[in-house]
Amino acid sequence: MTTLSMDTAARLADAGHKAAAALDVRMNIAIVDQAGHLLHFSRKEDALLGCIDLAQRKAKTAILFRMPTAALGEISRPDGPIYGIEWSNGGLISFGGGLPITDTEGRVVGAVGVSGGTADQDVEIARACLAAL
Amino acid sequence: MTTLSMDTAARLADAGHKAAAALDVRMNIAIVDQAGHLLHFSRKEDALLGCIDLAQRKAKTAILFRMPTAALGEISRPDGPIYGIEWSNGGLISFGGGLPITDTEGRVVGAVGVSGGTADQDVEIARACLAAL
Amino acid sequence: MTTLSMDTAARLADAGHKAAAALDVRMNIAIVDQAGHLLHFSRKEDALLGCIDLAQRKAKTAILFRMPTAALGEISRPDGPIYGIEWSNGGLISFGGGLPITDTEGRVVGAVGVSGGTADQDVEIARACLAAL
Amino acid sequence: MTTLSMDTAARLADAGHKAAAALDVRMNIAIVDQAGHLLHFSRKEDALLGCIDLAQRKAKTAILFRMPTAALGEISRPDGPIYGIEWSNGGLISFGGGLPITDTEGRVVGAVGVSGGTADQDVEIARACLAAL
C-alpha cells in the first residue's frame, strides 16, 4: 500500500469510534493522506465542537513532521530545541492524539488525528484506529 | 429526526460515492450539521485536491442560508440583489453542489456539499446523497 | 517519472528565466509538486514584488484543479458555471500563467506558476518551462 | 554587493543542498532579500513537508530583526525580555536555522532559512550556504 484509500480511512475511523464508545467518549477523527490533504473526517454527534479543528490539526501536524504529535510536544516546550514550532504551518498541535500511519514497508502513507477526550484518551483512540490497518 | 447523526451522515456520503462511481467521477463529499459544523467528510482517492475545500464551503454555504448553493448563485451575480455575498463568512461558494438536508417535518437539519465533477455532476451527486435519507 | 525532483524543477525554472530574459521581462517562477507543495521558487531581482504571491497561487491553482489557470478563468467569470471559485482554497488565480506539468505517461506530477509580465507573457514563459522537461 | 541576485541565491542554496547530502538529510532552503521578500526556495524531494513553511519563516525572522533566529530565541523564552515576540509579524520562528546574509562591507543584504533536520543540522547547513557567498 503506497496510497491510503477512502475505504481504508473509513475503516480506521470506524474502529476508532467503536473504541471511543467503549470508553464512553465522543470523538472527532480526521485522516489525512501522505501530503496532508484531508481524506476522511467523522464526528460523533455531540462531540466537542472545538475538537473538529483540533483533530484535523493533529493529523496535519503528524504528517508534516512524520511523528506523533506528542513526540513533537516533547521538544517544543520552552526549554526544548524547537520551542515555538507551533507558530508554523498555520498552527500546529503538539499534544497527544496525532499519529502517522505507516504501511507494511514502513512508509508513512498518512496520519490520523483524534480529539474529543483527554489527551490520553485521544492517543488511545488514535492507536485503535491504527490497529485496524 | 432533529439531529443528524454521524451514522446517517456516513450513509448519505456512501450513497453519493456510489452514484459518483456510476458516473465515473471522483468526489469530495462534506456534510455539516444544523449549526454548520463539519460532521462527515470523505474523499475518493485521486479526486481533485482543490475540491476538498469546495465541498466543505458548499455545505457551509447551504446551511448558512438554508438554500441550495445554486439558488444563492442566481441572486449573487453582478446584476443580482445580493452581489458579492461570497465575500462574507470567510468565503462562500455560490454554484451548484450544496444542498440543505431537511427532515420529514421540513426542518433543516444539516447540509451536504459535493465537489469533484462539473457543477451539474456535483448537484446530481448531492441529490443522490439526499435520496438516501 | 512519477515524482518531480528538485533538480528537474530547477531546470524548468532556469529555462523560464532564460526565455524571460529574451523578452526582457523579470519573472517569478514557482513550481509545486503533485500535492501542491512548493518545490522550487525563483525571482529575478527587481521583478514585481506582488508577483511572488501570484506565481505561487497560479501553480497551486493549476495543480488543485489539474488544468491551466486560464482554462479555469474561462468558466469562472460572472456568466460561467463556476463563478466565484476563486474564493476557495485560500484564494485562487484564474488568469494565465499556471500550467500543470505532465510526465511522459500523461500523469500530472506538478505545476508551474509564472508571474511578472503580462498574462500572455506569463503563459509564454510557463510554456518555456514545460518545454525543458 | 548591495543587492542579492537570483543567481547568487541559487548558488547559496546549491551549496546548502550539497552539504545536506553529505549529512544525509533532506532540506528546505529559503532565501529572502533585504526587504524580506522571497527570492529563492528549493526543497529536496521527500524533505519534511512541515519544513517548507519553517524555512521561509526562519529566513523572514532573520531579516526582520537582522540577527540569527537562534539569537532571537535566546531572548524570547518565557523568562526573557521579549517573550512572545513570535506572535508578531504573522508568526516568527526563534530556533536555529535562520541567518542574515551580510556583504563584504558588512551590510545585511538578505537572509537564509534552512529546515529539514535537527535545529543543529539546520544551522550547519545555513552556514554552508553563507560560506558559498
UniProtKB/TrEMBL annotation, chains A, B, C, D:
Coiled coil regions, renumbered to chain: none
Taxonomic superkingdom: Bacteria
Pfam families (UniProt xref)? HbpS-like (PF03928)
InterPro entries (alphabetical) = GlcG_carb_metab_protein, PduO/GlcC-like, PduO/GlcC-like_sf
Q: Could you tell me what this protein is called?
A: Heme-binding protein
Species whose genome carries this gene:
Nocardia aurantiaca
Lineage of this protein's species?
Bacteria, Bacillati, Actinomycetota, Actinomycetes, Mycobacteriales
